[in-house]
Amino acid sequence: MRVFYFIIISFFIQTSCKEQKDNIKIKNTPQVSQMLESYNKQKHRLAFNGCEMTYNEKPFSLGMSLKDLNNVFGEYETTDLGAIIFKDIGIVFAGNDKNVKPSSTINIIYLYMNTEVSKGYEESLRHKLNHINNYFLIEGMPLDKNMFVMDFIANSEFKLNDFAISNQGYEIEYNCNNKKMGYFLDADGTWLRKGSGHLTFKDKPNPENKNPFEMIYITEISE
């Protein structure tokens, strides 16, 4: 059976990651193979491999115009705050323009997974409720909204020390043509703590974080 799983993963690397072979972080396990098989059957397939990103094997990137994004993703809607929503796909983009037009360029990507908004703001913040409901790939590793942080790390070749860890979540940086790209994976429970009450303090990163990711955003990092 191990050979069978290896064949599935090898096939995945050759087909779904044609231009993204350098940073594959998947483990050769039955569970990962099953997730990859589900991913490959999806109508919408998003893959993020550091500097390279694809939707259904078509490349896209930060800095693209909305017109070019439209050619990759199809129809979209916008909000008063300037968010660009591709509803069925579960991805949101934003740039510097609140009055979005085809020439507007995007500089941030959002994947909302388990975010909530306060009652009364469902319309104005509807982009935060545009949750991605399918698997997507981070360096070849499948991730979905129901997966715990610890399961994502345990099933991949990622290690906790690959990430910068804050109270808000996890960050990993990539050098992309002399620019830095940051992936920010927001989640609760990032730290183990000691003490109680006002004397609580951070001890060390939580190796068994049983919280799902709230959202992921990707943007260029200024020096």
TrEMBL record:
<dbReference type="Pfam" id="PF24880">
    <property type="entry name" value="DUF7738"/>
</dbReference>
<feature type="domain" description="DUF7738">
    <location>
        <begin position="46"/>
        <end position="148"/>
    </location>
</feature>
<protein>
    <recommendedName>
        <fullName>DUF7738 domain-containing protein</fullName>
    </recommendedName>
</protein>
<dbReference type="InterPro" id="IPR056640">
    <property type="entry name" value="DUF7738"/>
</dbReference>
